[in-house]
Amino acid sequence: WDGRFNDLSSSLDLNRWSWSNQVGPYQYYIHGSSPVTAYVNLSPSYKNPFDAGSKQGAKITLDRTAYWNGQNMRRTELIPQTTAPINRGKVYYHFSLMRKDANAPATTREHQIAFFESHFTELKSGWLSGSPGTEDTKLRWCVSGQTHWSVEWEADVWHNFAYEIDFSAGTVGLWHSENGDPLKR
After folding, report:
1. 13, 68, 172, 180: which has the fewest Cβ within 10 Å?
2. What angle do CA 118, 125, 17 make, to 5 degrees?
């Protein structure tokens, strides 16, 4: 499965997916009531400039309309759409992300960024529910709810990740680098 946005003309292509028409690399149904362009936008300016394999990246937005199905947490989700065995054997999930100073994710709220539904591995930012204090400026990798890696999440720094998941062995590892540096376990 390849989740890059190379084959999409714009985020409007995400609207083609439905339960009866499962096309494209992503399911896009968990979002607020506004048009797709309020939550997901694609552009070459949103991709990691060190990534020669991607034509464009995605800007994901949460705003005051991003409530899904009456829930009380804001959500904009892209879920892999594939029949490939992405949850069997040993697989790697590679992604890059960066934040800006303008409209940065709130440090007073928990953000679940890249996760599996069971949350056995996930990238988070902001204040973790139940933690002491009221804000947190870190970007962190958690396994089963426990932080195993973290860094101050500074603006304009590209963070590259790979989850190394061996579903057969029940293990997970993290690879990370910044900007154009090679990934390190």
Report:
1. 180
2. 55
Across the chain, where does the E strand assignment appear? 26-27, 40-43, 57-60, 79-80, 90-97, 111-115, 121-125, 138-143, 146-152, 159-166, 171-178
Mean pLDDT of the chain, nearest integer: 95
3-class DSSP state of 95: strand
**82 touches 1 (CB < 8 A):** yes
Torsion of CA 178, 125, 121, 23, to 10 degrees: -80
Model confidence pLDDT, tens digit, residues 68-92: 999 999 999 999 999 999 999 999 9
The mean pLDDT of 55-69, rounded to a whole number, is: 96
> Which pLDDT score is estimated for 129?
79
Count of positions (residues) in the chain: 185
CA 173 to chain centre: 17
Could you tell me the two tokens for 110? 């928990």
The pTM is what? 0.93
Helix, strand, coil proportions of the chain in percent (round to 5)?
5, 35, 60
HEC string of 129-169 equals CCCCCCCCCEEEEEECCEEEEEEECCCCCCEEEEEEEECCC
- Two tokens, residue 69: 């199905």
